[in-house]
Amino acid sequence: MTAVLDHLAIGTSALTDGWDLFGGVLGGTWVYGEDSPGYWWGQLRFAAGPKIELLTPSSGPDAAFLERFLAVHGAGPHHFNFIVTDIGRTLERIRDFGIEPIGVNLDNPNWKEAFLHPGSAHGIVIQVAQQAGSPHAPAPRELPEPGPATSFDLIEHHVSDLDRATRLFQQVLDGRLEAAGDHAADLTWPGGNRIRLVREDGVPLGGTLHHVRFTRVEGPFSAQEEERAALLAKRLGLTVELAS
Predict the structure, then answer these.
(1) HSE on the CB side for 9, CA within 13 Å?
(2) Nearest-angstrom CA–CA distance, 190 and 56
């Protein structure tokens, strides 16, 4: 069984902020997206690292999960997604680890999925999915021309139980443990995808996404770009570190 960190999803009611930040400033390019029951989603990729997915509620009862999230938290990180080659085996691993997955849906042959509740997954929803094929849809008209290329090279996630969180991402989700200590652990997946777990006592639900880091492939960010990125990231409930 193989699991690979695929994307970080961000819930928002204002997609323009996400397009401007991740496309216009950070050079993300359109991958795909579409309407799903109750919400719309779209993904951008970078020179390396996981993709960013933007989620926004549409209408009807199926929008309730995302509307509740936005009402309680405002815009912000919603879930990590891991694409797996064998979701049946993945679910066995999750249960063997002592976590009962929720929202298990294996009916669609093109997209089988399950979730780990943030109370079990150190403060953030984790989605595992087995995918066959890709949806095809044109890029949104609001998506600007991409800025200079960047790599999405770090997600830093703070957790109260570093040992158990490390074992979840390593043993269940196939992360490669690159470095480990008393206060932090770095795990990687193919494609330059990296999560750093940092011990922090008292974080809600046992964890919180602290910040993400983007590194420009060539040249520095300008002061204007840094200011623009900080403003947009704040609107999206996210802290973004920019590196050259």
Answers:
(1) 21
(2) 28
What 3-state DSSP class applies to 136?
A: coil
> Is the confidence at residue 136, as pLDDT, over 90?
no
The domain ranges of the chain are 1-244
Q: What angle do CA 57, 50, 42 make, to 5 degrees?
A: 25
pLDDT tens per residue, range 35-63: 889 999 999 999 999 999 999 999 888 89
User: What b/e string do you get for 208-244 counting C-beta neighbours within 10 Å, with b at 16 or more?
Assistant: bbbebbbbbeeeebeeebeebbeebbebbbbebebee
DSSP string of 160-220, one letter each residue? S-HHHHHHIIIIIT--EEEEE-SSEEEEEETTTEEEEEEE-TT-GGGEEEEEEEEEESSSP
Pick the CATH number of 1-244 from 3.10.180.10, 3.90.79.10, 3.40.50.720, 3.30.870.10: 3.10.180.10
Nearest to 182 by CA among 169, 170, 194, 200: 200
